[in-house]
Amino acid sequence: MTWLWKTLDIALEVVHIAVIVFNLVGWVFPRTRFLHWLSVNITAFSWLVMGFFYGFGYCFLTDWHWQVKASLDNMPQESSFITYFLYKIGLQTSERTIDLFTAITFACIFLLSWVINFRRLKNFTMRILKVQ
Fold first, then answer.
1. Which of 18, 76, 115, 119 lies 20 to 30 Å (CA to CA) from residue 26?
2. Residues with Cβ within 8 Å of residue 68, at least 6 apart in sequence
3. Where are the beta strands (DSSP E) in 1-132?
4. Could you report the per-residue pLDDT of 64-111, keeping only the tens digit for each?
5. What is the pLDDT of residues 48-66, one digit of tens each?
6. Which domain covers residue 52, as residue numbers?
7. Closest CA relative to residue 19, chosen from 70, 66, 82, 75
8. How far is Cα 87 from Cα 115, in angstroms, rounded to an integer?
9. How many domains is the chain partitioned into structurally?
């Protein structure tokens, strides 16, 4: 049964990295902009709304991942996946600095995604109104 937990641990790490990369660059590609908007809004909901109850910055994906790691008796000391991953690849800086950089970067990308998608919706609406 341990192999199942290890497989799930690896899968959650891959998914986590994929979500982070997509949140960082998904807005660049026109075909993925709406999906990116959904992804950053789900992330914001987790960090802020769910975070109101569980602690700001709460990530349900990290929570699930840490539960799997706890089942493997491999519970990380770090509270966030980004800090955990950066430490794992050898980038040793303070958790506070990483959290601050993460928050600022995410806020910029969140606003950018809203602006891009709002403009897209506005252009789409204008085309529909001109056709009629």
1. 76
2. 5, 8, 9, 12
3. none
4. 999 999 999 999 999 999 999 999 999 999 999 999 999 999 999 999
5. 999 999 999 999 999 999 9
6. 2-131
7. 82
8. 33
9. 1
